[in-house]
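Data availability (excerpt). The following record was deposited with the supplementary files.
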Amino acid sequence: MKSEQFVGAVKKCQICSNKNLELVLPLGHQLPVSSYLTKKQLQEPEITYPLNLCRCPKCGLLQLDYILDPDIAFPFIYPYRSGLTNMLVKNFRSLADLLEKKYNLTPKDLVIDIGSNDGTLLQGFKDKGMRVLGIEPTDAADVANKNSIPTVQEFINKKTVAKITKKYGKAQIITATNVFAHIPNMPELINNIKNLLAKDGVFVSESQYLLAIVEKLEFDTVYHDHLRYYSLKPLQYLFNSFGCTLVDAERISAAGGSIRVFAMKGKRPQSDRVKKLIREEEKSGIYDKKFWNQFRKQVMTAKNDLLAIILQCKKEGARLVGLTSSARSNTLLGFTGINNQFLNYIGEKKGSPKIGLFTPGTHIPVVDEQKIIKYQPEYVLVSSWHIGEELMKVMRKMGYKGKFIIPLPKPRIIK
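Predicted structure:
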């Protein structure tokens, strides 16, 4: 079922409806990061869409100025499986443990995961004996259902919510990990979550945290899937506007630095952690226009420095390849112009549905990472640099003897 969502140019803030948005970082026109190509499709046209990061001076929300049709951003044949990323698997298991203890969950409680992908998160709750249900519009739902994780293969909308509550009842826990910033039409989304949630239920979201993005210069996390880039002040405004309370929050290391937020229906006490984090945000300067002018300059410097390293390596006649073809890597490659003239191929973990395909726009072949070990290229660009330490250790253990290029926050070569 097609999502009942707004698409196109954003003319007002997605949270507070302020019409005067300020441009923060122009990334030009880019391809959807999940639009991988077959060899045959390399001869066909590709459609790009505006990709610009804007700021709302009223509520402080960072957001894109164009919303892509969800059916394009999240195609039915979706080349991503959360179960293939060790960092995510560990994070999801720890989240299930935390919520079980924090809210005294019992086997009769229902846990719903929005954007559940292959069901990796829900598996942790199922192992504890709880009832689970995923909401996932792509073919990743097939994997979940085959693994006995009940999953509704639809976008979340009013009809889906009505069917779920009638069949399963209300949820004690609703999770949205790395998808709460992906779904357009915030009023509809919050109302759908409220209608799914039990009276004393808890909504838990994990999203990349704006402070982490600026601290580590993670501009590569800007792509069409991510419509909003959250800090706590705008989220507090959002939940208050819909009769809910942001009751707790904590910073976590997942996805290069994320914020885990807990919200409940009604007016409720707020933890000291929330208040402390908001004070830290205000002190950092992220609600100041001058801060973002400096951020833009830092991004351009990093881009130029990375290109200088790549060009020097090519000038020396070295072979360059990439490691991991993540969504963020496609923003990095597209923005810097690092294409198949620079990288011979990109290695992915065995079992990845991206193997055999080509990266959008840059047309770099995606192969089994064992090819890197076999041919020993002189340089490997670690595109998922936020987990670079882990990836480099794995590659050394597998037998890679060359050098690594870490692209951000300061581009550098590691021998």
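Summary of structural features: The mean pLDDT is 94.
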